[in-house]
Amino acid sequence: QVQLVESGGGLVQPGGSLRLSCAAAGSIFRIVAMGWYRQAPGKQRELVATINAGGARDYADSVKGRFTISRDNAKNTVYLQMDSLKPEDTDIYYCNGRIYYSPTGWNEYWGQGTQVTVSS
């Protein structure tokens, strides 16, 4: 059906920047929304940022002013530009997509996760 493939995680020093990418591939009829969530061991997965088909964005309070979500509709790809990173941003980041695979059928999909570590 549909796969979400993430890239761009890694190790960065506090105050640094990273850019995550997530490409949706497969039987895509229409993308409703895509976004990023993060999860630390033993904790619930939490919203980081989302962007819908109309371009409306939503951010967690903890990342407002530091992270920017964007999308390239032609490439079915969503990006998360993360600036002014803090150690507390260290987590596994998961791409999420609400995607129609047919005119009437849709699912919620998840990427495999990419590790972001902010440490000196």
Commentary on this structure:
The chain has strands spanning 2-7, 10-12, 18-26, 30-39, 46-52, 57-59, 67-72, 77-82, 91-100, 106-110, 114-118. Strands 2, 4, 5, 6, 9, 10 and 11 form a 7-stranded mixed sheet that branches. It is 0% helix and 58% strand. It contains no helices and 11 strands. The chain is an all-beta fold and 120 residues long.
Helix-strand blueprint:
Blueprint (H helix, E strand, L loop, with lengths): L1 E6 L2 E3 L5 E9 L3 E10 L6 E7 L4 E3 L7 E6 L4 E6 L8 E10 L5 E5 L3 E5 L2
Parallel strand pairs: 2-11
Antiparallel strand pairs: 1-3, 3-8, 4-5, 4-9, 5-6, 7-8, 9-10, 9-11
Supply the key terms:
11 strands; four-stranded antiparallel sheet; single chain; seven-stranded mixed sheet; 0% helix; 120 residues; mainly beta
SS strand fraction: over 45%
**Count of helix runs:** 0
What is the helical fraction, as a range of percent? under 10%
How would you classify the helix and strand content by structural class?
mainly beta
Largest sheet, if any?
Answer: 7 strands, mixed
How many angstroms does the end-to-end distance come to?
A: 41 Å
